[in-house]
TrEMBL record, chains A, B:
Name of the protein: Diphosphomevalonate decarboxylase
Record organism: Caenorhabditis latens
One protein family per Pfam: MDD_C
Functional note: Catalyzes the ATP dependent decarboxylation of (R)-5-diphosphomevalonate to form isopentenyl diphosphate (IPP). Functions in the mevalonate (MVA) pathway leading to isopentenyl diphosphate (IPP), a key precursor for the biosynthesis of isoprenoids and sterol synthesis.
Listed GO MF terms: ATP binding; diphosphomevalonate decarboxylase activity
Domain Diphosphomevalonate decarboxylase-like N-terminal as annotated: residue spans: 16-181
Documented EC number(s): 4.1.1.33
Length: 377, 377
């Protein structure tokens, strides 16, 4: 953090999106964004939001610029909520420490994502995690406070606040004070990689806030999922992760992705996020997993796939994908040589390519956010 | 029934397929075909199997001919099972009545369906219900015995044995003696019609026996559906049917179709029966149901839709369908004038027709099977 003579503090952070291995779907409190069930995730290190926040003393408006475009804050209330809460926490801390510096401040946020915001890749989660982490630095907040800031911006943002396997606990309390995302004790499993496949489609998507509400209000299966299925799966994921048991991990990841989409389908009216390309990818993974499970697909609230594999299997998996799905040559060229050198593209083996992937990215997982010690100003 | 001097008895029946309003999915006994949960259905009167059975005395092979083609019985064991059970019941009855006529007999079955067998429209259910009803006549069996014959041929066949709202009770006993399909007390709701839309697709389908087994063994949601959701829905359907409350009936029908597909998706590997055309139809129905529910879609183990509407709304619904989905002109021409006279096909209102329906049929519901008193021979 730097502070110059004019009372401007500034910090820059780089925060990756995260992908849930056991999905978050449904809120127990809409205002505080408290989830109905625990979830567990890993960061996708390559897909990041790089965010600089300046805290400026004196009268002025908060501003947020994402990828060069000014965000209209009056129609994006969540930014205002996060800034208000930040300043409330600051005042509280100052009163507590008997300080008197009740000066006015405002925030200027500049954020850049390295993936399409519209691709449905939880960009807002990375963005709000970045804002929360940066404000934590600026205001010297504790982790629980920072977690809360991220969460009220975008629920799953709190899972991007650290590396390793992150467990977002739903908590029991009404005020959300025990609802936190924590890194599990394990070292990061550095061998886990993911292949992200973006499948655009023209359908109008049911937003995840609206979708969660609909499922909570209408699905007769959700309650059973929340009470019985999810707690067991959280334990299974932790155990498989700490014992480095890829097959067990993969089985739970795929089952939970499918169950999340199942409760969406069980809603009234039914919600669908998977499209024909998603289903082709599921089939490709099923084939690739014969006779041994080496890949696990997972889909969030959209058609895009995230396929988790071990580093040693990245090339083999891409070889399997390009047989069934059309991939941009440029995306393949952009991959590190260690992954591309053993990809085999045997055109005679290709199935009729009906589905096209508009973007393919390979990333390590679980490295978490970076606080940039040298601010860019 | 007729019997000539050479010892040949013959009977002809016409049996409609049925569509479940609360779905059967999962067996508690694979051999006796006992279901894990109750289901409830109506017949689709227009789609029938017309079946003639001759019972011939003396040594000879059972034969089954469907739509002019001889069925290879060695690879279709269920026919043999039904014939064996029929003859066992006959012997039992004769022994009981102290009869001595333990003569050899065999069956000759000739069946004709008026809808494509491959369309996934539960043709085997109608076919086995026809065989069971005809053998009931020939051997003078009671309803429970006939029910059992139909069921061991094809589980849901037992729901085609009568008209009205038919409730197939799963029963509790291991021998299946309390597992029967019964007509509920109500008069048939003659105002209910259905529009069947056949959407072919090239995907290899997971057969329903295999699909049920997979869901039973792997879905963590199925148990909750069976124990908690289905019993309530059976009650709701009965109540809505007896009070002629279309909206309530429709709500349960759609929710249960979606939940059946949800537990399929919750299976490992996931099972999918709905395709893009099915989802277009769901959207069409959702639009049509604004501001008032006037149609209910339901899908069995395939992409084809059955949309239940009241007679007064048939034309309006077809008007809505042809806006979104391509329908054969011949199918429309084949409809009775009462339905076609007020169809409006406003080409300027049509959405871009991406999905084509290969067959459209409108049918009354719940009239049940007919025993033809004059055999055709």
């Amino acid at each position: 953090m730097s502070q110059n003579e004019t009372g401007i503090s500034e910090v820059t952070v780089e925060v990756p999106m995260n992908i849930a291995l056991v999905k978050y779907w449904g809120k127990r409190d809409e205002k505080l964004i408290l989830p109905l069930n625990d979830s567990i995730s890993l960061t996708v290190d390559k897909l990041t939001a790089e965010t600089t926040i300046r805290m400026v003393e004196g009268v002025g408006k908060h501003t947020v610029k994402i990828n060069g475009e000014e965000v209209e804050l009056s129609s994006n209330k969540r930014y205002q909520t996060v800034f208000d809460e930040s300043l409330r926490l600051q005042r509280k801390r100052k009163e507590y420490s008997n300080g008197n510096e009740n000066r006015l401040v405002h925030f200027e946020v500049i954020s850049k994502t390295n993936f399409p915001v519209a691709a449905g890749l939880a960009s807002s989660a990375a963005g709000f995690a970045a804002i929360a982490l940066a404000i934590q630095q600026l205001l010297n907040l504790n982790d629980t406070q920072a977690n809360r800031l991220a969460r009220i911006g975008s629920g799953s943002a709190c899972r991007s606040m650290s590396g390793g396997l992150v467990h977002w606990k739903k908590g029991e309390k009404d005020d959300g004070s025990d609802c936190v995302a924590v890194k599990t004790a394990d070292d990061n499993w550095t061998d886990l990689y993911c292949v992200i496949l973006v499948f655009n489609d023209g359908r109008k998507k049911v937003g995840s806030s609206e979708g969660m509400r609909r499922t909570r209000e209408t699905s007769t299966l959700l309650k059973h999922r929340i009470e019985k299925v999810v707690p067991e799966r959280i334990d299974s994921i932790k155990k498989a992760y700490s014992t480095r048991n890829f097959e067990d991990l993969a089985r739970v990841i795929m089952a939970d992705s499918n169950q999340f989409h199942a409760v969406c389908l069980d809603s009234v009216p039914p919600i669908r996020y998977l499209n024909e390309s998603s289903w082709q990818l599921i089939e490709t993974v099923e084939k690739f997993n014969q006779p041994e499970i080496r890949a696990a697909y997972t889909f969030d609230a959209g058609p895009n796939a995230c396929v988790i594999v071990q580093k040693k299997d990245v090339s083999k998996f891409i070889t399997a994908v390009i047989r069934d799905i059309q991939i941009n040559t440029d995306d393949l060229k952009a991959l590190p040589e260690e992954f591309t050198k053993s990809i085999e593209d045997r055109k005679d083996e290709r199935t009729e390519n009906k589905f096209a992937c508009s973007q393919l990215v390979v990333s390590s997982m679980g490295n978490g956010p970076k606080i940039c010690t040298h601010p860019r100003t």
